[in-house]
Amino acid sequence: MLLYYNHCFILAVHSRCIFESFEKVHIFAFTPYQKKANDTVMSPNRQNKSAYQMNQNDSRNSADLETEKLITLEDAYAYCRQISKEHAKTFYLASLFLPKKQQKPIFAIYALLRTVDDVVDMAEEKLANGLITKEEISLMLEGWKSKLKACYGGKVDNDPIMMAWHDTLKSFTIPIEFPLDLMDGVAMDIEFKPFETFDDLYVYCYKVAAVVGLMTSEIFGYSNKQALQHAIELGIAMQLTNILRDVGEDVNRGRIYLPLEDLRRFNYSSEELMQKKINRNFIELMKFEIERARNYYRLSDKGIPMLERRSRFGVAISSINYGNILTAIEKNNYDVFSKRAYRSFFQKISTIPYVWHKTRTPS
Question: Per CATH, is 1-32+193-363 categorized as 2.120.10.30?
Answer without folding.
Answer: no
